[in-house]
Amino acid sequence: MAEYYFHLSGLSVGYQGTPIIREIEIGIHQGEIVTLIGPNGAGKSTILKTISRQLQPIDGNVVFDRKGITAYTYKELASRMAVVLTERMKPELMTCHDVVATGRYPYTGRLGILTAEDEEKVEEAMRSVHAEELGARDFNAISDGQRQRVLLARAICQEPDVILLDEPTSFLDIRHKLELLAILRSMAKSRKITVIMSLHEIDLAQKVSDKIVCVKGDHIFGYGTPESIFDEKSIRDLYDIDNGYFDPLFGSIELPRVEGDPQVFVLSSCGTGIRVYRSLQKQGIPFAAGILATNDLDYRLARLLAVKTVTAAPFEPVPEQAYAEAGELIRSCQKVILTDFPIASGNAGVRRLIRAAQEEGKLEKTGLQEV
Amino acid sequence: MDHGSAGSFHEENFRRRSRYTLVFVLLAAAFCAIIVLNINTGNVNIPLGRILNIIFARSGSVDEVNIVWKIRLPRILMSAILGGALALSGFLLQTFFENPIAGPFVLGISSGAKMAVAIVMIYFIDMFGKVPSVILILAAFVGAMASTGFILLVSKAVHQMAALLVAGIMIGYICSAITEFAITFAEDSDIVNLHSWSQGSFSGSNWGNVGFAAVVVGITVALTFLLSKPIGAYQLGEHYAQSMGVNVKRFRVALILISSILSATVTAFAGPISFVGIAVPFLMKRALGTSKPLVVIPASFFGGAVFCMFCDLIARMAFAPTELNISTVTSVLGAPVVIYMLIRRQGSR
Predict the structure, then answer these.
(1) DSSP label at A70?
(2) What was the pLDDT predicted at A88?
(3) Strands of A6-15's sheet in order across
(4) Of all residues in chain A, what percent carry a pLDDT higher than 90?
(5) How far is CA B124 from the centre of its chain?
(6) Which domains are seen in chain A, by residue range?
(7) What is this structure's pTM?
(8) Model confidence at B128, in pLDDT bands (50, 70, 90)?
(9) Which residues of B touch A82 (CB under 8 A)?
(10) A 33-52 → B contacts, CB under 8 A
(11) B276-288 and B293-317 helices cross at what angle (nearest 10)?
(12) Tens digit of pLDDT for each residue in B43-84?
């Protein structure tokens, strides 16, 4: 067995002796970003609290750098592990600089007075999260995004080997989410800091993490690289999604398709149909799509949203059978929406379909800008 | 850019230090002024020149020397020491409960101490005729700890600030009821001293008591000052404090013991005194513009001393020769501060 930097072995976590999650077995290497995902109340925070020693493990061990976590003194652990918690901090009369400076706690003397070197580290930490301009502001008077950055700076200037973050992106808008995760990513890679966090946004988790831990029920539902974890089925099972779809390639989430006999046939390709699909979806109109090669951008979404999709093999001329199928749909639908896509030798038959639709008075054209 | 921001931090640091210095200079000035004023005024008026003579040369008429040395000086020092202790005890309780209106009086800790002291006084006087200060302080401490222990139990069950305070006030009432009960059935001769004491007063301070209080309070204040680093960490919340290396369990025990000793000492010598513990730390934090324990702890101590000496002056002089209870004055001055504080907090939400 490989020697792990951070190892949860046979760990059971919970409150007052009652385990919530049992038999956790996770090995983490130095400098990795590990993200806990799973439904609300699954126990992600409980795991993080146990790792950070706020809770006693009910069974098993947390081994950190070859030493059981309970063998560390609080002080030793403080110089190696920092946390960013979900609980709202409401310090009285403290500037952001003051809050960040508390990260120097394990390194200052008896009275906690900062040296010039400490001040330097505080400023450096604030620069690394792009918060240098916030220094003199009252911590209670800044926005959520700024607050998370300041708290991250606080953790950074504690100079830890491991940072634990409990849902650091909650309350943040998309720009600040991306910013925060980018900072974590670069920190993990450039300084070899190990990051263990919980996230709600599975799409972001997939993109930022080296390893994913799925927490559900009373056990770890899955653990591995995002590539191995993020297939459509595991995500649907993890969150019990029965009313929508998750696309593991792009990490996008879709509402369930509108079922029923198709009323509209969308004739598109090359991604030009996506907007039409979404618009129909929102209006609650069941639709069919075609003729899409299975490597077409439209196909990835049509297979999730369209009631019926006419497909063709990629890099082959569209076979006659597909044209026939599409012709059938044009006859049965009340409307045909044609988008603006190239028609060339491989799909020349589409011209026939357009004519047929025109003759039945069902054709409606749409450019990219309309819809 | 980097230099700019670094520069602004240094400017900020300088600005802060100047502000701290200013506050401490003002406190020191007020401290001296009130001491002089306090010695100077009373039923017997002694001019400043003669006072200096009496204090530094111990010369003057025997009556005047006795008034200054046996009555006024010990009383002033007592109110300074106990006022400081009270303010600090409030600051520690506010930190502990993460709640700005926690204080020894509001949480019923003073009443618990008062109850224990009253009972001991009544029964000890029966048996021995005189109660040593140590026993009084111990009794007050036991009473204070009993109330505190009860508050801690309640605080585990309810996390709301309001509920906790109501529980404290109720404990206060229960303790007062028991105290009244003991007084009602005590011999009249046993309770001669008790009445004025139980309403809170610095009168009757003597050098023995002052010395004793100075030692107890001096040691606890020094300990508190040494705790200012973990107190600062604790201000960010228990979990962050732990993640910074504070042994939270041990720290909480230390905090509650120290604040109980402080409020017990005050109660043993001067009876329960209200509002100082809430109003003074609040005013000091505002004045300093920070909640850093390293500066707030000494400022609260001196602020409490100045505040109590001032209140005692009013208590003695406002309706001379009739003396007011010290709590009457501290309430009149302190309660509006607390109301203002609550309004401000509401406004900032």
Answers:
(1) G
(2) 78
(3) A18-28, A6-15, A59-64, A67-68
(4) 60
(5) 26
(6) 6-242 (3.40.50.300), 255-365 (3.40.50.1220)
(7) 0.84
(8) low
(9) 243
(10) 52
(11) 130
(12) 777 777 887 888 787 777 888 888 888 888 888 999 999 999
